UniProtKB/TrEMBL annotation:
It comes from the Bacteria. Residues 198-415 form the PPM-type phosphatase domain. This is Serine phosphatase RsbU, regulator of sigma subunit. GO terms for molecular function: phosphatase activity. InterPro entries: Bact_Sigma-Reg, GAF-like_dom_sf, PPM-type-like_dom_sf, PPM-type_phosphatase-like_dom. SMART domains: PP2C_SIG (SM00331). SUPFAM superfamilies: GAF domain-like (SSF55781). Keywords: Hydrolase.
Amino acid sequence: MSEKATATLDELELKKIELDSLIDIIKSINGNIPEQDLYRTFMFTLRSYPHISKMTLYVLDEDTEVDANRNKWFNKEGFGTLGNYKNVLLPQEILDIHKVSSTTEFNHLAPFNEFCFLIPIHHKDQVLAYLFLGRAYDSLLEEDLDLPFIQALSDIIIVAIENKKLARKQKVQEVFSRQLEMASEVQSLLLPKHLPNQEKFSVVASYYPHHNVGGDYYDYIQINDNEFLLCVADVSGKGFPAAILMSNFQAALRTMARQTTDLKKIVEELNHLIIQNSGGGHFITAFFFLYNKSQKTAVYINAGHNAPILMFNSHQVQHLEEGTTILGTFDKLPFLSVANLNNLDDFLIFCYTDGFTETAAEDGEEFGEDNLLVGVKENFDHSHQELHERLFDKLHLFKGNTPYPDDITLLSCRVKK
């Protein structure tokens, strides 16, 4: 048989291998097999090429957490190599290459100098993988390997794997979105639907979640004709777990308030509940205020929350700071104490969460507690609802184009003679 006929047969054999490889790859993709099996299929496909003696494949994996000592390029498959590349990092010189190249350009970069060719695999404008190839014998030319076909085959498999990753992310996002929707529904059920609005007694709440689901909570509980309980709280974390924890908190608070007016006992039980339900993964800052109308007295506990403002007029101010630390961290709450207030028959108590005071202006300066106090004093004589509205106007003007950093809750109670 002539050399020309032999060459033709070799070319036909190579084309048959390529066609079989393409069919196998497409079958594997359509079969929806796991990503690792796709990598192995790709590796065995290249192993069937008579002109390829070795390969190793690096793939970009941006979803995997890595420490500061490595990049996000991971070795997925290989064969015929002198060394194990699983823990070998891609150097920056290789990451700067975006076209098919002969590895003679980086012969100094051991151990990658055992290969002959480098094929970057693109999707749109981004390199997703680097394929290193070694030829079976030195006299083989680049065209003998049919690098364009190998590159096309690599593109198909890597893009298919990338699509799997995107589909998985989309599914996770759909689950997360549904969780947010459920958490939002849960949270909407927690907040009181009706607050007292009488001439001599009113409670006003303003709540603005930073996202669809916030971590703030407030409540007004009418215990009997003579007593009521106010609570404002802020749970660490967001989303569905935080909403569930807050729903448990609310249910326990309302149950306890029907059983006892011992505020210390209520707070101790709530602390125990949070530790049990969150396993130390969340904590809650909270403020509790129990008022007795006939005795004109109140007791309160501040559990690590921003100190509410108690005002008798626009000049007499008291910050309610006594109590204990945050709930959900210590089995036994340190320095837990109940503060007593007497002669309360004409007052305003103003509670808030830190989303209000930590909102920043465009220069980075936070609104702060001093600005809030000034705002409350300036608007003390306005109607109860207008007080809240004017404070938000003041905050909005202060922040300019800076977005709100967190949920914001204002809760206030006004009692008049």
